[in-house]
């Protein structure tokens, strides 16, 4: 009896959230699924049922395949770099040095900078004629003439990743730092007195404490990177030669610029599925890895 | 005591506010324009303020987006009843807008005076399938700009009249060490690249579409891309052109880093202004060159029109605003960055004074304006072509292959 | 802390300096661009330090005269504040009870799990129906409509953060309150909320920053000064059609000030929020 009432209470507390979630996520998602089987246009008449046509068309199109591999490339490289550099900076912050608190506070800055401002800033920095990047590299003697960073497929992707990395590594660093601080000092001391070298100490003493929090960071960053839109939209709009056109940009073009809401919806669902698969794989890998070290 | 006075004065203020608010009873219009190229944002704001002064019961909210956002914003606002009343649109969109009834058909509002007074080329901007979807506002094409001082230094007497001559002149300037990359274009992955390409297509007598099928992978349209790639690879073209938009081209040109540039009307007076530009007073302009045996000059129809959206609740006020903005008086007053649509303005000294060279170039260029294809699938075709052009420039594939892939990707059956 | 050799200490300081420079250089450059003249910004070689500091662009963007660029910019600034505040308050209002319930009753944890999993959904997967729903409801191009849409991002996120914050608060207090006959809402208000103030503050900041940062939905669902947010206004400026790089930078500085200010001021709360969420998952 009491338990029934308690259950009721619990659901009562959850109700507003669930209602809102159904309104702004549940219902639209179901509608996206419905749309994906039709040829509905964005404005105008309701479309007709076309079965799996949208899915087969999208999956077999060259544009999709290219955008998919572009997205994977962006995600893998940027997340890997963010984690590696983030952990290194986190370890640095775990050392004693003057200005440590100030540096830790500074890490908030790139993270708090709005993504759109970040993208705009880097676009100006990479400007091929008047950008600071070219000017600085030339001054330092790293390049001997100005480069068109956002105008060549290879450098454009790296330039985007660098801009994304600058904004996102601080988050990883802060998470890594908190995890490192949770390593009990006596365990660390014991490892040192056992004569373990630096690498083994990291692998067997520190890493187990890092894996959990990093797993979360990796999953979050992967999901975000896979969904990437803002930074690319502002810096390159998918160019040059569509070499930085990611899946989100492709969906935007399909559904909104070309107004094919139906096939745009199918493409969006394909992305959602890909993200889910990616997240599950990651979690599996990290879990088994974490299990092995503990 | 004091608090009482405060309360009274507050109430009075509130009352005054309410009364004045009611007395105005304004009609609010939302208008969508683009930022830069052609009329400047400041000019448009000034014109609009003048209109509001003449029509105190109408208030216009101006919205500026980059050209790249103009189409999508217009289409997306269709779903919103209170989106825009007046929108600026490019010459390539009436087909799609007509198909999706984005714009109001205003054929019956066009007066005979307008029909006879406005240049025929301008009308093509707003008509589709025999109907008029607004008024032409910007009559524009790409011209060849050159730096007089640099040409003189290289011993070049007059501006080139063929593309082959342009190439030879650019080589001379490069060889003389006057400037490293003589030519600047706007070849970023954007509509701007298509405008430069179309100019060349018109010079080489190419076609975009034949019998409803893409036809740009052969003939003059292929020659046009070959020319671009050759100019790029030979080092005559600024390699950064592939990420330039029009404003980047202007920056490079007026900074003295280019001898030639292809750009719209607006660049003439801006680049010639010593306050803005390092090459002020040295800017020459001619119609874009032709190809020997095929064409005398070349030009793309880059005009734009103003239309009323089908969702507007105040179509009459919107039309008044459009008529004002396109009137000969306003167009003559602001003829420094965009030339009028009215035929008689071109002989009006108030318009021509100080920009005779531009007017002379316009007479040739405007007559040669070549259309980009009229198709409801324009956006898709354009994006495929942009990709093809850049792939060829970046040597990712040959011009022929790139254009064939673009044709396949164009959404045209 | 381990004993550090002198060489190691120098190395650590050098690396710290490097990290600080990497973080600060782009930000400093953004500010310098905003106060440099156009001539300095288009000079070759580039002038990294302006000859004169010119703050006029700030005045230009913040001026409120009729039909000016400043009016449009200030309007978008206010829209951003409005949308972000509304969305944040609603997200917390529904997130607090739900987070508390889920924290105390692991049996309903799955429903929260489902809510959190929606984070994986790319906005593009919801955008078309949301666009159509907003259009039908007449909420396109309104701050209300946009705030509602932002709940799809803010609500799951803040509920998750709040639950993690409620977890360590001991249950004994609630039991005592229940024995004293307190109603559910009384328990929440009198017992839990005061104890959970830090995590609520953290969630509030996070939600606000997320909303302030949002671009995609704002790009799609707003069309003019009535609802256009700052991120879209900046994207419009940065679209490559404005040749005054300094003006773009100025808009960037102004848009970055509120979140950066909040971030630095609330540093401690933010870091604990980040790491709590991170460590506990």
From TrEMBL, chain A:
<feature type="domain" description="ABC transmembrane type-1">
    <location>
        <begin position="68"/>
        <end position="282"/>
    </location>
</feature>
<keyword id="KW-1003">Cell membrane</keyword>
<dbReference type="Pfam" id="PF00528">
    <property type="entry name" value="BPD_transp_1"/>
</dbReference>
<keyword id="KW-1133">Transmembrane helix</keyword>
<feature type="transmembrane region" description="Helical">
    <location>
        <begin position="12"/>
        <end position="30"/>
    </location>
</feature>
<feature type="transmembrane region" description="Helical">
    <location>
        <begin position="265"/>
        <end position="285"/>
    </location>
</feature>
<feature type="transmembrane region" description="Helical">
    <location>
        <begin position="72"/>
        <end position="93"/>
    </location>
</feature>
<feature type="transmembrane region" description="Helical">
    <location>
        <begin position="204"/>
        <end position="223"/>
    </location>
</feature>
<protein>
    <submittedName>
        <fullName>Carbohydrate ABC transporter membrane protein 1, CUT1 family (TC 3.A.1.1.-)</fullName>
    </submittedName>
</protein>
<keyword id="KW-0812">Transmembrane</keyword>
<comment type="similarity">
    <text>Belongs to the binding-protein-dependent transport system permease family.</text>
</comment>
<keyword id="KW-0813">Transport</keyword>
<dbReference type="InterPro" id="IPR000515">
    <property type="entry name" value="MetI-like"/>
</dbReference>
<feature type="transmembrane region" description="Helical">
    <location>
        <begin position="165"/>
        <end position="183"/>
    </location>
</feature>
<feature type="transmembrane region" description="Helical">
    <location>
        <begin position="105"/>
        <end position="125"/>
    </location>
</feature>
TrEMBL record, chain B:
<dbReference type="Pfam" id="PF01547">
    <property type="entry name" value="SBP_bac_1"/>
</dbReference>
<feature type="signal peptide">
    <location>
        <begin position="1"/>
        <end position="25"/>
    </location>
</feature>
<comment type="similarity">
    <text>Belongs to the bacterial solute-binding protein 1 family.</text>
</comment>
<keyword id="KW-0732">Signal</keyword>
<keyword id="KW-0574">Periplasm</keyword>
<keyword id="KW-0813">Transport</keyword>
<dbReference type="InterPro" id="IPR050490">
    <property type="entry name" value="Bact_solute-bd_prot1"/>
</dbReference>
<protein>
    <submittedName>
        <fullName>Carbohydrate ABC transporter substrate-binding protein, CUT1 family (TC 3.A.1.1.-)</fullName>
    </submittedName>
</protein>
<dbReference type="InterPro" id="IPR006059">
    <property type="entry name" value="SBP"/>
</dbReference>
<dbReference type="GO" id="GO:0042597">
    <property type="term" value="C:periplasmic space"/>
</dbReference>
Automatic annotation (TrEMBL), chain C:
<keyword id="KW-0762">Sugar transport</keyword>
<dbReference type="Pfam" id="PF00528">
    <property type="entry name" value="BPD_transp_1"/>
</dbReference>
<feature type="transmembrane region" description="Helical">
    <location>
        <begin position="245"/>
        <end position="266"/>
    </location>
</feature>
<feature type="transmembrane region" description="Helical">
    <location>
        <begin position="72"/>
        <end position="96"/>
    </location>
</feature>
<dbReference type="InterPro" id="IPR000515">
    <property type="entry name" value="MetI-like"/>
</dbReference>
<feature type="transmembrane region" description="Helical">
    <location>
        <begin position="144"/>
        <end position="166"/>
    </location>
</feature>
<feature type="transmembrane region" description="Helical">
    <location>
        <begin position="187"/>
        <end position="212"/>
    </location>
</feature>
<dbReference type="InterPro" id="IPR050901">
    <property type="entry name" value="BP-dep_ABC_trans_perm"/>
</dbReference>
<keyword id="KW-0813">Transport</keyword>
<keyword id="KW-1003">Cell membrane</keyword>
<comment type="similarity">
    <text>Belongs to the binding-protein-dependent transport system permease family.</text>
</comment>
<dbReference type="GO" id="GO:0055085">
    <property type="term" value="P:transmembrane transport"/>
</dbReference>
<protein>
    <submittedName>
        <fullName>Multiple sugar transport system permease protein</fullName>
    </submittedName>
</protein>
<feature type="transmembrane region" description="Helical">
    <location>
        <begin position="108"/>
        <end position="132"/>
    </location>
</feature>
<dbReference type="InterPro" id="IPR035906">
    <property type="entry name" value="MetI-like_sf"/>
</dbReference>
């Amino acid at each position: 009896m009491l338990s029934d009432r308690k259950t009721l209470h619990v659901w009562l507390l959850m109700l507003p959230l669930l209602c809102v979630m159904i309104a702004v996520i549940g219902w639209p998602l179901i509608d996206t699924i419905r749309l994906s089987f039709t040829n509905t246009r964005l404005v105008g008449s309701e479309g007709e049922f076309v079965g799996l046509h949208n899915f087969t068309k999208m999956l077999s199109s060259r544009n999709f395949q290219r955008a998919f591999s572009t997205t994977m490339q962006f995600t893998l490289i940027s997340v890997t770099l963010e984690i590696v550099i983030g952990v290194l900076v986190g370890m640095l912050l775990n050392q004693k040095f003057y200005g440590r608190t100030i540096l830790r506070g500074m890490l908030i800055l790139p993270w708090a900078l709005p993504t759109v401002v970040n993208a705009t800033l880097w676009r100006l920095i990479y400007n091929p004629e008047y950008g600071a990047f070219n000017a600085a590299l030339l001054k330092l003697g790293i390049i001997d003439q100005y480069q068109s960073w956002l105008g060549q497929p290879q450098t454009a992707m790296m330039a985007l990743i660098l801009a994304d990395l600058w904004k996102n590594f601080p988050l990883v660093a802060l998470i890594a730092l908190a995890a490192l601080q949770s390593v009990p000092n006596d365990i660390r001391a014991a490892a040192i007195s056992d004569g373990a070298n630096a690498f083994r100490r990291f692998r067997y003493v520190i890493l187990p404490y890092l894996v959990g929090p990093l797993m979360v960071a990796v999953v979050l960053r992967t999901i975000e990177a896979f969904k990437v839109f803002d930074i690319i939209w502002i810096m390159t709009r998918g160019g040059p030669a569509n070499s930085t056109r990611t899946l989100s940009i492709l969906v935007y073009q399909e559904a909104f610029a070309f107004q094919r809401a139906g096939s745009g919806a199918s493409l969006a669902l394909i992305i959602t599925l890909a993200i889910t698969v990616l997240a599950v794989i990651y979690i599996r890998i990290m879990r088994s890895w974490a299990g092995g070290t503990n | 005591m004091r608090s009482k006075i405060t309360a009274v004065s507050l109430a009075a203020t509130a009352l005054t506010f309410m009364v004045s608010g009611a007395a105005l009873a304004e009609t609010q219009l939302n208008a969508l324009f683009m930022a830069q190229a052609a009329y400047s944002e400041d000019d448009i704001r000034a014109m609009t303020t003048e209109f509001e002064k003449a029509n105190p019961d109408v208030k216009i909210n101006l919205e500026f987006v980059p050209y790249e956002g103009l189409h999508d914003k217009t289409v997306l606002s269709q779903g919103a009843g209170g989106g825009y009343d007046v929108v600026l649109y490019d010459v390539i969109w009436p087909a799609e807008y007509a198909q999706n009834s984005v714009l109001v058909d205003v054929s019956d509002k066009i007066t005979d005076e307008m029909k006879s007074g406005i240049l025929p080329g301008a009308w093509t901007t707003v008509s589709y399938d025999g109907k008029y979807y607004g008024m032409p506002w910007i009559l524009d094409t790409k011209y060849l700009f050159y730096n007089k001082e640099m040409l003189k230094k290289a011993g070049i007497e007059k501006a080139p009249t063929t593309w082959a001559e342009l190439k030879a002149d650019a080589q001379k300037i490069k060889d003389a060490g006057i400037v490293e990359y003589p030519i600047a274009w706007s070849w970023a992955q954007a509509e701007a690249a298509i405008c430069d390409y179309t100019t060349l297509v018109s010079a080489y007598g190419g076609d975009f579409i034949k019998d409803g099928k893409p036809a740009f992978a052969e003939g003059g349209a292929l020659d046009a891309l070959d020319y671009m790639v050759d100019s790029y690879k030979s080092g005559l073209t600024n390699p950064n052109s592939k990420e330039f938009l029009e404003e980047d081209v202007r920056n490079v040109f007026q900074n003295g880093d280019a001898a030639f540039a292809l750009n719209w009307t607006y660049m003439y007076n801006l680049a010639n202004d010593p306050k803005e530009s390092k090459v002020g007073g040295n800017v020459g302009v001619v119609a874009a060159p032709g190809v020997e045996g095929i064409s005398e000059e070349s030009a793309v129809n880059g005009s734009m029109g103003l239309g009323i959206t089908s969702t507007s609740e105040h179509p009459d006020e919107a039309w008044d605003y459009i008529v004002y903005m396109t009137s000969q008086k306003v167009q003559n007053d602001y003829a420094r960055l965009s030339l009028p649509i009215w035929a008689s303005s071109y002989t009006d000294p108030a318009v021509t004074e100080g920009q005779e060279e531009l007017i002379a170039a316009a007479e040739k260029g405007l007559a040669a304006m070549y259309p980009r294809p009229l198709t409801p699938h324009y956006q898709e075709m354009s994006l495929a072509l942009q990709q093809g052009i850049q792939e060829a420039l970046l040597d990712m594939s040959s011009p022929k292959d790139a254009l064939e892939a673009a044709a396949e990707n164009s959404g045209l059956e | 802390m381990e004993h550090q050799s002198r060489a190691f200490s120098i190395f650590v300081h050098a690396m710290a300096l490097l990290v600080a420079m990497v973080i600060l250089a782009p930000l400093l450059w953004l500010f310098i661009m905003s106060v440099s003249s156009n001539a300095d910004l288009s000079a070759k070689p580039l002038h990294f330090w302006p000859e004169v500091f010119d703050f006029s662009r700030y005045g230009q963007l913040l001026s409120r005269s009729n039909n000016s660029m400043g009016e449009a910019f200030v309007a978008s600034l206010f829209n951003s504040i409005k949308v972000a505040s509304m969305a944040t308050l609603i997200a917390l209002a529904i997130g607090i009870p739900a987070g508390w319930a889920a924290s105390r009753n692991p049996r309903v944890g799955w429903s929260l799990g489902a809510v959190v999993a929606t984070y994986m959904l790319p906005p593009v997967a919801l955008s078309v129906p949301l666009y159509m729903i907003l259009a039908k409801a007449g909420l396109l191009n309104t701050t209300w409509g946009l705030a509602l849409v932002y709940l799809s991002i803010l609500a799951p996120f803040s509920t998750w953060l709040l639950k993690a914050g409620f977890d360590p608060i001991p249950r004994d207090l609630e039991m005592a309150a229940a024995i004293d006959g307190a109603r559910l809402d009384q328990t929440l208000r009198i017992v839990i909320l005061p104890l959970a103030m830090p995590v609520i503050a953290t969630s509030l900041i996070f939600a606000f920053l997320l909303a302030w940062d949002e671009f995609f939905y704002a790009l799609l669902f707003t069309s003019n000064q009535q609802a256009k947010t700052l991120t879209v206004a900046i994207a419009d400026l940065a679209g490559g059609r404005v040749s005054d790089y300094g003006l773009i930078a100025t808009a960037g500085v102004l848009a970055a000030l509120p979140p950066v200010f909040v971030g630095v001021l609330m540093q401690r709360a933010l870091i604990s929020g980040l790491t709590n969420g991170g460590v506990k998952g």
